[in-house]
Design a protein that fits this description.
heterodimer; A: about 200 residues; alpha/beta; Rossmann fold; five-stranded mixed sheet; B: about 425 residues; alpha+beta; five-stranded antiparallel sheet; four-stranded mixed sheet; 12 strands; about 55% helix; elongated
Chain lengths: ~200, ~425
């Protein structure tokens, strides 16, 4: 009888352990949450923080202001390419960078390629439908002084259950009139991942 | 008595084969009922069972891909890739249990070539979305998987390279003007096709040789490429400079259905009782039509190009299983022996406690149960195509009507496509159902 109850309780334990439960808990947005081995929000935040600090400290900003009567440089976001082996939304850290630089009051931004089509459609609509004194007209856009583009690369070394993932993000500011690169920001992230071959 | 309970526990926890009705899905796809097909899959997760979750994701991804919902397809393929990675970790308890029940107790991890196809079809889905950068991320992921296979299998003549995957990687790199990278991918594809010719009878396509020669010029590797291309091949090459003034249209033709695993089972009578052994085999359904032609027409220009076979999934699957047959059969024999030992021990104990008749009944019941439990693992990614063909044409910039003509003269109209100078566009066609 004892053995029967012992085996029965094992069966019940197996059944219960197979049941899935979901729990949710709120965490701070800057808490490090490494779930899985892929690129995550912590990586994106680290990139943005490094780039923001670096961009504002480098000489290109003060040099531009000196040559342009203390006017803020105007930047347009160009293409930031994902050249890694993962599907990574590069827009997260680019948007963070754009927000921080704009809010610093030192740099101005103009709408990029993906945004200005919508704005131009709106101006076209206003030309037909809005009152003359409130309508906005073509030919008054501010031309950008610099374009920001970049790429995210990765190198993976894997053997068995051990892998090393190396990510390198480079952002470049290019003077649009002279094609001169004035700033290159870089952030490297390395992760060591271990996956066991055998589990229970 | 305890052995009898052990046998009962194994009966309780052993898994059954997935019960999803593929005929219903095939009928729905054949009648082009995409909403019906998607709904069928959405409601069938239970029918697949928790151990075939990977197959459910792959089938869902494939159906969304074919039903022109590439965004949803990418999500399924990404989740499938993550799950396949997680399943690399084997459960000790389940592996042990599979030696006394059957392989359905193990979660399905995907065959080696199926894991490569996840990356390839995810790349195709991103290509349909026009996101070549993201498609390239899948090609790099495929490169990592194939590197693992190469390290694992070394010199063994097994599936460890994917020629089509390498070729598509080359095409995407060339579209991105990364000519050195494109050359390396085309070169890898060429090496892979040498293995394909030997293992699967798939000859090296002329399109690959032309592309290799063309990019060798901007990649500064022309003399090396000239040595790689067989002299007797009639290669009609457009040089790199001319190609930049033209648009490139690539047709990906998914033809026929992937082979289906079936069970082969036989029983051997031994002194202690019958032993049943089951192992899987592939049933190939060869497509009725194996050639096709892409016809491009615009007011200013028209042309026709033949497709070439780039991936014979039927043959890859069959050979992949053949290469593992020894291991599968050895495991089936070990499992049969282990079950027989449990049945014998249980019946002896029953005889000891309850007499000869009880022992005999336990022996019979145990043998019947052991035979019923012995099942071959017939799970596979059934919604893959049987073959993949490619056609490629350089055309003057403009808008083109695209038709596909099959071997029996049947013509299929595809959407119109616009292509600019230096641009690469893909069109997809499937004759799977």
């Amino acid at each position: 009888m004892k053995k029967f109850f012992f085996l029965f309780s094992i069966c019940v334990s197996l059944i219960i352990s197979g049941c899935q439960t979901v729990t949710t808990s709120r965490v701070e947005t800057d808490a490090v949450t490494d779930v899985g081995d892929k690129w995550n929000d912590t990586d994106s935040r680290l990139v943005a923080e490094e780039m923001i600090e670096d961009a504002l400290e480098r000489p290109w900003l003060s040099q531009f202001k000196q040559s342009n009567n203390q006017k803020n440089p105007t930047v347009i976001i160009g293409s930031v390419k994902n050249r890694s082996h993962e599907h990574i939304n590069v827009r997260t850290f680019v948007r963070d960078l754009e927000r921080a630089l704009l809010n610093s009051g030192e740099i101005d931004f103009v709408a990029g390629k993906s945004e200005r089509d919508e704005i131009r459609d709106e101006r076209f609509d206003q030309a037909s439908n809005a009152s003359e004194d409130t309508a906005k007209y073509d030919g008054e856009e501010i031309g950008a002084d610099f374009m920001l583009n970049g790429e995210l690369n990765s190198i993976i070394n894997k053997e068995g259950g051990k892998s090393v993932k190396f990510y390198q993000i480079n952002l470049t500011l290019i003077d649009i009139s002279k094609n001169r690169k004035v700033w290159i920001g870089e952030k490297k992230i390395k992760k060591l991942i271990k996956q066991s071959r055998i589990g229970f | 008595m305890k052995n009898f309970f052990v046998l009962l526990i194994f009966l309780c926890v052993s898994s059954c084969a997935p019960k999803f009705n593929y005929d219903s899905l095939q009928n729905a796809m054949a009648s082009k009922d995409c909403p019906g097909s998607i709904e069928l899959l959405k409601n069938s997760q239970q029918a697949y069972g928790p151990k075939a979750l990977l197959i459910h994701m792959l089938d869902s991804g494939m159906i969304h891909f074919q039903c022109d919902d590439p965004k949803e397809a990418t999500l399924f393929f990404q989740n499938a890739d993550h799950l396949a990675q997680d399943l690399w970790t084997k459960s000790f308890s389940k592996e042990a249990a599979s030696f006394v029940t059957n392989d359905f107790i193990l979660p399905y991890r995907g065959e080696d070539f199926e894991r490569a196809m996840i990356c390839l079809f995810s790349a195709f889905s991103y290509i349909k979305l026009g996101e070549f950068d993201e498609a390239m991320a899948d090609c790099r992921r495929l490169d990592i998987i194939l590197s693992e296979y190469n390290a694992q299998y070394e010199k063994k003549n097994v599936y460890k390279e994917d020629a089509l995957g390498r070729y598509i990687s080359g095409v995407l790199s060339e579209a991105d003007k990364e000519f050195s990278e494109a050359y390396i991918f085309y070169h890898d594809a060429l090496k892979a096709f040498k293995n394909y010719e030997e293992a699967y009878g798939t000859p090296t396509p002329n399109y690959l040789l032309e592309d290799l020669l063309r990019v060798s010029i901007p990649a500064d590797r022309k003399s090396e490429a000239m040595n790689l291309v067989p002299g007797e091949r009639n290669i009609g090459m457009i040089d790199h400079r001319t190609s930049r003034t033209l648009g490139k249209i690539i047709l990906v033709h998914l033809n026929g259905k992937a082979p289906v695993k079936i069970e082969n089972k036989f029983s051997v009578v031994t002194a202690t009782g019958p032993i049943s052994i089951a192992f899987p085999d592939y049933s190939v359904n060869p497509p009725a039509c194996r050639t096709s032609r892409m016809i491009l027409s615009s007011p200013a220009h028209s042309c026709e190009v033949e497709t070439e076979l780039f991936e014979d999934i039927n043959r890859i699957a069959v050979k992949d299983l053949e290469d593992r047959k020894f291991r599968i059969t050895a495991k089936a024999i070990a499992r049969a022996v282990a079950k027989q030992a449990v049945v014998q021990a249980s019946s002896k104990e029953m005889e000891k406690h309850y007499g000869a008749m009880a022992g005999l009944m336990a022996n019979i019941a145990g043998n019947v149960a052991a035979s019923a439990l012995e099942r071959a693992d017939t799970r596979s990614w059934r919604t893959l195509p049987g073959e993949i063909y490619i056609a490629r044409s350089f055309v003057p910039p403009g808008e083109y009507q695209i038709n596909i003509e099959l071997c029996d003269g049947y013509r299929k109209d595809l959407n119109k496509i616009s292509v600019k100078a230096g641009e690469t566009k893909f069109v997809f066609c499937d004759t799977m159902y």
